[in-house]
Amino acid sequence: MLKTHSCGELTAEEADKDVVLTGWVDSLRVQGKIAFLILRDREGITQCFLNPNLTNEFKDLSKESVVLVAGKVKNRPENQIRRELTTGEIELGVDKIEILSRAETPLPIEIEEETTTHLDKRLDFRFLDVRRNRIKSIFKVRAKIYQYSVEFFTQEGFINIQTPKLTQSGVESGAEEFKLDYFGKPASLSQSPQVYKQMMVASGLEKVFEIGPVFRAEKSHTTRHLTEFTGVDFEMGFVKDEHDVMDVVEKYIKFVLEKVKRECKEELKMLDIKLKVPKEIPRLEMSEVKKLLAEKGKEIPADDDLDPEGEKMISKIVEEKYGSELLFVINFPWSVRPFYHMRPKGIVTGTKSFDLIYRGVELSTGAQREHRLEMLDKQAKEKGINLKEMTFYRDIFRFGCPPHGGAGLGLDRITEQLLGLKNIREAILLPRDVERLTP
Ligand code: 4AD
Ligand code: MG
C-alpha cells in the first residue's frame, strides 16, 4: 500500500512516528510561510502543516487533488485541538508531498457537507457527490441493510438463490416490461423473480430468497420509483395463510431496524436520524383503512387501490393511534392484485395479500399464492391472461406444489424511508429513471 495509516486512524499514540497518508485535499490554507492542508480519506480527516520549504511549490494545489504526504505525527497543543476534527489531538508535519492526481478547477459541483447543488446536478457527478461524508454514510448504511438481509433470511432457513434477469415475459400485471431482442426472439428484463421463486419452492428448496436487480419500465416521475431497483424477495412453502408470510416480513424489518440502530450509530448521527423499532406492526383490513380515511374526508371506492396520498394519511393515523411508523394493510381487492394472489375461500372480491407501509411509503407487497391449477387457470382467465402461453409457469403447479406465499421488498425504498431521505434517488448510487441512463 502507498500509505501506512488512514486519516481517521492517527491518535496521540502515534506521536513522533513517521507516517505516510494518502487522500483528497479537503482544503489548503496558506498563512505566510506556513500552509495548512486538511487531508481527507474514507475514514476521516487529518490536519497537516507543510514545512515552510514546501509552501511555495504547493500553495496553488487545487481542492480535491489526490496526494500522498509523508512526515511526522505531532501532538497538538491542548488549546489548538479542534474537536470537530476526528484526529483533533494530533497533526502531521509534512516534509514530502507527492501529487498523485491533480483536480481540475473549478469543480463541477460543490463538495461541502451542506450544499445547495440540485440533486440532478449532483447525480451527474455522483462520484464527486459521494466524497461528502453525509452521502458516504447513506451508502454505508445501505450496505449494512443488504448484509443484514442476507443474514436474516439465511438464519431463518431460506436458501439464497439467483434467478435469470433475461426472461420471456413477466407475470407482474401492471408493471411494464423492458422489451429486448434475444437472438430474434422477443424477451424482456425481469420485472420480478416471482415465477422463479415460486418454482424453487415447488423444486423442494421450500424456502428461498433473492436480492437482485428488478427492471420496470415505469413512466412515472415520482420520488419513489426507479426503472432499475434492488428487490429483496422471498418465498416459502407450507404456509397456513398470508399471516405466516407477514410474520416473516415483520420479523425481517424489525431485525433490520434493530441492527441499524445498534450498529450504525455514527452514520445515523451524521444523518440526524432517530430510529424507532415497533413492538408489533398493526395489521389493518383494507376496508377498515378506507373507513379511517373516509373519516378524514378521503373517499376511496371499495375496489380501488390506495393512492400515495392515502398511504401517507393512513400512516399518520396509525402512528397516532398505535404509535407505529409501520403498518400492514391486508386483504386488498382482487381488482388491483395480480392473478396469482390467492382469494379467501368463497370471497371473489378479496385477496390473501398485504402491503407493508413505512412512514407513508409502500415497502413491500406479498400474498399467499394460488397453488391449485384449476383456480389459477380461472383467475388468469378473469384477468385476461392466457396461461397456456406461459407453459413453464403453469407446469410449476402440475407435479406437486405446496401451498406457499412470499413477498417482495425494495432495498432502495427501505434505505430511503429508514434514513428519512426525500427522494429514492438519494438511496441508490446511480439511479435509473425515465430521464436518466447516465452516468
Ligand atoms: O409491489 P411489487 O410490484 O410486488 C412484486 O414485485 C411482487 N412480485 C411481490 C410479491 O412477492 N408478491 O414490488 C415489490 C416492492 C415494492 O413494495 C417496492 O418496495 C419495490 O418492490 N418497488 C420499487 N422500488 C423502486 N422503484 C420501483 N419502480 C419499484 N416498484 C416496486
Ligand atoms: Mg406493490
**Based on helices, strands and strand pairing, what is the structural class?**
alpha+beta
Count of alpha/pi helices: 12
Percent of residues in beta strands:
25-35%
Count of individual beta strands:
16
Compressed to H and E, one letter per element, the order equals EEEHEEHHHEEEEHEEHHEHHEEEHHEH
Heteromolecules bound = 4-amino-1,4-dioxobutan-2-aminium adenosine-5'-monophosphate, magnesium ion
Helix content: 25-40%
Mean pLDDT: 94
Q: Quick one: overall form? A: elongated
Low-confidence stretches: none
What is the rounded Rg? 27 Å
**In angstroms, what separates the terminal alpha carbons?**
29 Å
Strand order of the largest sheet: 6-10-11-16-15-14-13-12
Largest sheet: 8 strands, mixed
Description:
With 439 residues, this protein is α+β, with helices and mostly antiparallel strands. The protein has twelve helices and 16 strands. It has helices at residues 52-58, 119-124, 126-129, 133-155, 194-205, 242-263, 265-270, 286-295, 308-322, 373-382, 391-395, 411-418, and strands at 18-31, 34-41, 44-50, 66-75, 90-101, 159-160, 166-167, 179-182, 185-189, 207-215, 228-237, 283-285, 326-330, 353-358, 361-368, 404-410. The chain has an eight-stranded mixed beta sheet, with helices on both faces. Strand 1 (18-31) and strand 2 (34-41) form a beta hairpin. The protein is elongated and about 85 Å long. The protein binds 4-amino-1,4-dioxobutan-2-aminium adenosine-5'-monophosphate and magnesium ion (MG). The site of magnesium ion has 3 residues, from strand 15. 4-amino-1,4-dioxobutan-2-aminium adenosine-5'-monophosphate is lined by residues 172, 175, 192, 194, 216, 218, 225-226, 229, 231, 233, 362-367, 406-410, 412-413, 424.
